[in-house]
Structure formats: structure tokens, C-alpha cells
Design brief:
Keywords: Hydrolase. By secondary structure, the protein is an alpha/beta fold. The protein has one domain: Alpha/Beta hydrolase fold, catalytic domain (Rossmann fold, 3-Layer(aba) Sandwich). The chain is built from ten helices and eight strands.
Amino acid sequence: MRMLLQIAFIVAAGYGALVAAAYFAQAKLVYFPAVGREQVATPAQMGLPHEELTLRTKDGVRLHAWYVSVPQPRGVVLFLHGNAGNISHRLDSLAMFARLGYATLIVDYRGYGRSGGRPSEEGTYLDALAAWRHLTAERGIAPEDVVLFGESLGAAVAAWLAAQVQPRALVILSGFVSVPELGQEVYPFLPVKWLARFRYATADFLKDVSCPVLVAHSRDDEVVPFRHGERLYAVAPGPKSFLELQGGHNEAFFFVRPEWERSLAEFLDSTRPVR
């Protein structure tokens, strides 16, 4: 009996240490700013005219951003990327939007790329808000001409922003319902929903979004299961569309495939304001 109690104590202590480590290491599990911290290329290398920008957030953090222009734009995309890499890893997406006739503002969150500060959930929301203010207040672009595009973690940030402002449309690529829900699936042996200090509650944000929404997700996504995309589509009030993709979560640049690029173009054109 004494041996059994000792074994039980060791197991309990080990599990407690694992739970504590998971609680305090959450930021390292959510954010990967060190992955591709260096800028590997610029839009100019793809023949895309752009401006180097420094945006300042409400709490004083300086963010690095690019504004890629096109002649006679059909609108402007505010691009909010995922939790790894930086804006220089999204050049194919910038080229795709240019082909579709859209200018793009893409910004690195605090702690990513050449941006200052350290990443946090509230910080990423402030970063998105600073990018929105730059477009609408500083450049004078009408909100109904701005499309929010978020991939993975950026999908949660974009959904949060869409619930605060009135954009033309919202595109959710490979989004998850929430960090606690996804984390519980990834680590079923841990009480993630109790431990989670990060929420990124995409589904909750979507309930307060009034603009048209496109949810795009792949059945092959090995990081964020397809059912997350289905649930996000279900909770979006509408008007809404769903686009089923193929390929893994990190199989870059989904929309450069012609059939999906056409679907995205059709959705964006359907949301253009009548003037």
C-alpha cells in the first residue's frame, strides 16, 4: 500500500508540474515570433509597388507594415497573418490580391518581424485597430471599401476587429473556434479550458459581425480541424459563404490556386458597394 501511495504521489506531482508548465508556457505555445523574425523579401522583388510604414498603436508600440498599391483599386485588404513568420512570408498572397485589383495593408503584430514590443492577445487587437485607423483615418479610405482578411490566429484578430468596426467584408482562412477549444483537442490530457490565459474567441466575435463573411477551410488541415471552420460558418449571422479548400494548414497560399482565387474574387466582388 505504501508503494502504491508513493507511486500515486509521484504521478500526481508529475502531472501537477506538467499542468504548471503548460500554464506558464502558454505564450510560447500561442506565438512564434522567432520563426522567421528576419525579413526575407519585399514586395518590390515581386514587382509590387509598396510603401514601408511605421504605425503607432494606442499604447505606443511601433509596428512595421507595408501598403501595396494597385491602379484603380477595387478595394483595400487589411491582411492579418497567422502566429508564425512575418509579413515577408506572405508575398504570394499580396501578389494575389494585386491580381484581383485590391490594394493591401499588411502589418506585423508587436514582437513580430520588425515591429516593437512583445505579443499578447490584447496587443494584437490594438495592432489591428491601429492598422484600421491608418486606412480609414490617415488615408481616408471609406470603411465600406476595406476587406478584413485573417488567417489562423489572424482570423480571430480579424473577427474581433470586424465586431468593433464596419468593414465591407470579412474573410476567415483556417480559423479556429477559440484557443481553449483548440487547445483541449490538441492536449486532451490537460484541463486546457481551465488553464487557458488566451481566448481568441473567434466564434464569439463572429456573432457580433454584421458584414458579409467568407469562411475558407481545408478538410486536410492537420492543425485546425475542418469542424472548426464549419462551426465558424454556422455562427456567422450572414450574409455568409463557405469555401472548402484542400491541403494542410501550413501549405502556404491556398488562394493562389486558380479555382479558389476565382471563388475569392467572386465573393469580394459581390460585396462591392454600389456607387
